[in-house]
């Protein structure tokens, strides 16, 4: 009986060894194929990522604590804007409006605007284009302020037309 048991154990061991030799490479190949498919899927997602193909511009925070954007407006005027996410629209000084080809004296200042300093008036305008680096937004709603504004503001009427904008440490990154 010991001899039969030993023979049975040897046979079982041989079968187990054969299974290991046959199945382990197949399992490893299947795992490798699965990993390759997963890698292909990841690569496809990475190359299809729209963020990689979007135009991007970066603005740095200045010593005054604000983000500033040097822009090209209407493809002809260089205007420095202070970025203001609290401003619902782009707000322009009289001087900047003049530089970009608007005629501030000919505008009608009939829009009442409430600010922290009180009530003032502005004239509704559409800016043909505002460009920051490679990012350009067209037909931007804005307001030319009658008198109180000392600095043009890049407000939400510009920012909401972007694919995204994010504040990271000392940078404002915009994507289109």
From TrEMBL:
Transmembrane segments: none annotated. Coiled coil: none annotated. Signal peptide: none annotated. NCBIfam families: clan_AA_DTGA. InterPro entries: Clan_AA_Asp_peptidase_C, Peptidase_aspartic_dom_sf, Retropepsin-like_bacterial. This is TIGR02281 family clan AA aspartic protease. GO terms for biological process: proteolysis. CDD domains: retropepsin_like_bacteria (cd05483). Its EC number is 3.4.23.-. It holds the Pfam family gag-asp_proteas. Keywords: Hydrolase, Protease. GO terms for molecular function: peptidase activity.
């Amino acid at each position: 009986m010991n001899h039969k048991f030993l023979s049975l154990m040897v046979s079982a061991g041989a079968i187990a060894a054969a299974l290991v030799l046959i199945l382990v490479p197949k399992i490893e190949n299947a795992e490798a194929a699965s990993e390759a498919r997963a890698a292909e899927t990841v690569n496809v997602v990475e190359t299809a990522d729209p963020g990689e193909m979007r135009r991007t511009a970066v603005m740095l925070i200045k010593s005054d604590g604000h983000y500033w954007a040097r822009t090209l407006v209407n493809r002809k005027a260089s205007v420095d804007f202070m970025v203001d996410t609290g401003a619902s629209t782009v707000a322009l000084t009289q001087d900047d409006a003049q530089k970009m080809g608007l005629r501030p004296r000919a505008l009608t200042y009939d829009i009442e605007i409430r600010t922290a300093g009180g009530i003032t008036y502005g004239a509704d305008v559409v800016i043909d284009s505002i460009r920051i680096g490679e990012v350009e937004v067209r037909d931007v709603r804005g307001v030319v302020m009658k008198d109180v504004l000392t600095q043009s503001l890049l407000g939400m009427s510009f920012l909401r037309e972007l694919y995204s904008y994010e504040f990271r440490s000392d940078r404002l990154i915009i994507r289109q």
